[in-house]
Amino acid sequence: MSAFIGLSSGETPALPGTETLMMRELQLPRRHAGVFFACLVWGLLLLPVVGRAQETDASSAPRLEAFDMPGDAGDSIGLRWPVLTTESKTAVYRVSLSKEQTGAFTPIAEFAATTHYETDISGPWWVWGAKRKDVHFFQVKSTSDFRLERDTTYFFQVTFSDGTESLKSAIVAAAPHANLLNWAKLNNFGILVAFGATLLVSIRRARVNPHIFLRRIPGLDAVEEAVGRATEMGRPVLYLTGSGDFGGSSDPSSLATIAATVILSDVAKRVATYGAELRVPHRAPIVMAVCQEMVREAYFAAGRPDTYREDTNFFISGDQFAYTAAVDGLILREKPAANFFMGYYYAESLLLAETGATTGAIQIAGTDAEHQLPFFITTCDYTLIGEELYAASAYLSREPVLVGTLRGQDIGKGILLCVMVIGTVAITLGEIFSVPWVKTLFQLFNDVK
Amino acid sequence: MLFWKRTFPLLLTLLLGITFTAQYYVPHPASESLLTEVSVWGQIISGFAILLGVGSLIRSHYVKIKRREAGWGYSGVMFLSMLIMLGAGFWSGGKTEGTSFGWLYSYVFVALQGTMFSLLAFFVASAAYRAFRARTPEATVLLVAAILVMWGRVPLGEHLISGIGSVTEWIMNVPNTAAQRGILIGVSLGGIATSIKIIFGIERSYLGKD
Amino acid sequence: MTDFVLRLLRLDRRVIFLLIAVATLLPLLYPVSLPIRVSPEVQRVYDYMEKLPAGSLMLLSMDFEPGGKPELYPMAVALLRHAFQKNIKVLGMTLWPAGAGIAEIAFTEVAREKGKEKGVDYVFLGYAPGDASAVISMGQDFHAAFPADYYGTKTADIPLLQKVRSLRDMQYVMSLSVGFPGIDTWYVYGKEKYGFELGGGCTAVSAPRFYPLLDTGQINGLLGGLRGAAEYEVLLGVKGKAMAGMAAQSATHFVIIFLIIVCNALYFLTGQARGRQR
Asked: Are C145 and C263 contained in the same domain?
């Protein structure tokens, strides 16, 4: 069998003189993936005892294998070979590469023979199987000096040198291919699916039984009081949606901003009902456009479309401190009776909330920007911490569907807490009693690439 | 009408939500190109959104001046500053080195921004004086931690009490990190739940009511 | 007496502002040198830089605008000095549109001080729009992400960038960040995808947020606020602006501590008075 790891059988050249290799390593992830859930526990139990039958080679040159690295964009190749018994701290391995089997080989790396083992690989067991300390591993990647081209076959040779002798491996070949799935993230996907399913089941159950207990969130209970106070005092209600934007997954502020707009809808409805004035200055134009729509709808829903003003929502500046200065000015001039600071904030949080505190306004903040929480807690009357902000729409509307998601979230959090506690205890005991598979088992909850 | 206002955005959200969740698990270059492409679209949309913002800004300040509302003079200052900065920018072709735009950037914009940021020190002090009181045992813990961190983070503190820097480091690395992680886990789960709700159209209040 | 104490408790905040202003100004006018202890997270950045061989590529992303200048600019200067001393090639850029001006000044000044040549020892690429997509496109094709540098020179013609094709070619990336986009963006869309080592610098107010990333190895070190910059200057053995600012920071911290103690003492006094009245 002359198939080389990393080459599909159709394109594998028969290379005389090169070592026979097996496809086993490349196929492992796919095969494991297919039976992943079913074989999980048994696979783990068997892992420590089922090792690859590879013997340490004492006499001959390194038995080199080359293969396409699994789960990548086709930009690297893996090399592995068994440890030689003649290795010492002074010995070195040199890895050379060529585009042609009979062409000149260029050295691409040189390292001490007592480094670079398979156990150094961070990949999980369901992709890599049992990693061995008696097998060397080296990952060939593009550098500024040479570039690995996708789907191009490369030839590799490893030379062992300890000052007295120099042993060359056989020449092996492999080609990097772009993969369609990163199997190392399979656990991540599994957790996502499990959590999503828990949420959907919780929502379904909440539809059947809508009487789900929700603990009190004083910050949201105080909304009514704050709006009522503003109405009595004849002063406006100031509502900020934070410094965030709907910037997609790359933007940490997106979800907080969405939550802030959802709460705005409810606050606007109460403001409309009471006949108070609402002021919503913005830093992000798209958020402003969405909020305009939501506030208008809220006034309609409250039966007061006549009192809705187009300039309730207005844009100030996209610049952090220009926005802060303008809002501080507004707070000092108009002295709103109630200030809401919802959404995502950066350094401006204290500048805004402290200015508001000096005017004697009732202040309610809510943010998942954990680094700004201390400032809000110090200067505001009520603060929604972290996910309380996301829970607001469920809490305010009491819609069974939304409340059900909260239940699902709590179940997810409970499971995570159990995993953390059990994991910490089990791994600690595993280390004390030298049971390595415990650590391997908990790779299921690792962020592995 | 309802299709374009409600059904179509929900379908689009579902489609893109599932596509880009899947994208995370696909290392193929085509998947990354797709992500880049969509991010670029996002940038273009944001670019147009600036027009929306500027329109709103001009309208609200114009109305203030027209109605002679309290502080309408500041709206005039806003228009003047905007025109000066825009004019200098166009005149200098966006270059900062040795241009009027560069001068405004270095000696007005940088100075104003620095001033606003430095206000934090003053506001931290006044907020601390007003609010940092040992009213409850929890507030006392917060208070003591704050004093220890402030003391240990500056050279004078370490000069006065040697070893306090290690206490500060422990507070930052252990209780602070633990609390941050706790909040982060909750926020992340809440974030995933909100995303799932939005992708599947369960949370749709951001679209306005029916 | 109680009235006086109550009045003190409701002290006009302008008095507090004045105290802070004096505490900041005096040490700046009459500098006092104090020993600065180096924290492990700063030491780790320094050690990593020390280990980089000459000729290595480092990307310094100055992800801040003028508001963050007082804290982050000294960090940038210290890092650039260290890199140039070690003959590390530096690529500069920013993800913040208003940050290009200050970043350019930092590069020009330190390069002049260390006698480094533009295009050979360093490149300043300017502002990259697009936050995460900018990082991703730099990872895919560096020259497509930056067809020209800040001064309009084609990157294909710049000697230093001849061999640079992707972020994978970077031996180290440092993001000095004041918010988003910043360290998070470089970690999620850069390090995770393209496998370079990442370090971070941030304002003191946001430093606590990045401590969890240190333990997990998501960043290999952190320079937090002016103190972080001062510690780096200590390691470099250079007296820079950050070290000069540490005396002022010491004074302001102690004024705040003093104010907290005073307000609590007054609070207890009024509490006792209330108790006596009952």
From this structure: no
Q: Collect all residues with Cβ–Cβ distance below 8 Å to A23 and sequence separation of at least 6.
A: A3, A5
- Specify the CATH number of the domain A215-397: 3.40.50
**Residue C129 falls inside a structural domain:** yes
Same domain, C232 and C256: no
Domain that holds residue C88: 40-239
Q: Which of A144, A243, A250 sits opposite C169 (nearest CB)?
A: A144
For chain A, the straight-line distance linking the first and the last C-alpha, in angstroms and rounded, comes to 31
Q: Does C219 lie in the same domain as C133?
A: yes
Residues whose CB is less than 8 angstroms from the CB of residue C131 and which lie 6 or more positions away in sequence, other chains included: A247, A250, A251, B39, C95, C180, C181, C185
Check whether residue C50 and residue C103 sit in a common domain. yes
The answer to whether A250 contacts C185, with C-beta atoms less than 8 Å apart, is yes
Q: Cβ contact (<8 Å) for B125 and C209?
A: no
- Count of pairs with CB atoms under 8 A, one residue in A, one in B: 194
Is C191 in the same domain as C267? no
Q: Is there a single domain that holds both residue C74 and residue C109? A: yes
Q: How many CB atoms lie within 10 A of CB A46?
A: 12
Contact C257 B32 (CB under 8 A): no
- Residue C11 domain-assigned (yes or no): yes
Which single residue is written with the structure tokens 């166009």? B90
CB contact under 8 A, B133 and C267: yes
Whether ipTM tops 0.85, in short, is: no
Separation of alpha carbons B149 and A198, rounded Å: 41
Q: Least CA distance to A145: which residue of chain C?
A: C163
Calpha distance B60→B68 (Å, rounded)? 12
**Which fold, A9-180?**
Immunoglobulin-like (2.60.40)
Which secondary-structure segment (H or E) carries B179? helix B177-199
- In chain A, the residue whose alpha carbon lies closest to the alpha carbon of B133 is A378
Q: Which residues of C touch A185 (CB under 8 A)?
A: none
State how many domains chain C has: 2
A10 vs A234, residue with greater confidence: A234
Contact between chains at B116 and A416 (C-beta distance less than 8 A): no
Is residue C92 domain-shared with residue C210, that is, in the same domain?
A: yes
Residues of B in contact with A330 (CB under 8 A): none
Per-residue pLDDT of chain C (278 residues; tens, 9 = 90+): 677 888 888 888 899 999 999 999 999 898 888 889 899 999 999 999 999 999 999 999 999 988 888 899 999 999 999 999 999 999 999 999 888 889 999 999 999 999 999 999 999 999 988 788 889 888 888 998 899 999 889 999 999 999 888 898 899 999 999 888 899 899 988 998 888 999 999 998 888 889 888 888 899 999 999 999 999 999 999 888 888 889 999 999 999 999 999 989 988 888 765 555 55
How do the domains of chain A map onto residue ranges? 9-180, 215-397
> Is residue C35 domain-resident?
no
Q: Which of B113, B130, B146 is facing C66, going by the closest CB pair?
A: B113
Stated length of chain A: 449
Asked whether residue C87 falls in the same domain as residue C12, the answer is: no
Which residues have C-beta within 8 Å of that of residue C260, sequence separation ≥ 6? B128, B129, B132, B143, B146, B147
Tally of CA atoms within 13 A in the half-sphere of A148 that contains its CB: 29
Q: What is the 3-state secondary structure (H, E, C) of B99-151?
A: CHHHHHHHHHHHHHHHHHHHHHHHHHHHHHHHHCCCCCHHHHHHHHHHHHHHH
Contact C164 A144 (CB under 8 A): yes
CA distance A297 to chain C (A): 31
CB-based contact B133 C69, cutoff 8 Å: no
* Chain A residues lying within 8 Å of B200, measured CB to CB: 200
The subunits that touch chain C, with at least 3 C-beta pairs less than 8 Å apart, are A, B
Which residue from B minimizes the CA distance to C255?
B125
Q: Which residues of chain B does C100 touch, with a Cβ-Cβ cutoff of 8 Å?
A: 96
Q: Do B147 and C193 touch (CB under 8 A)?
A: no
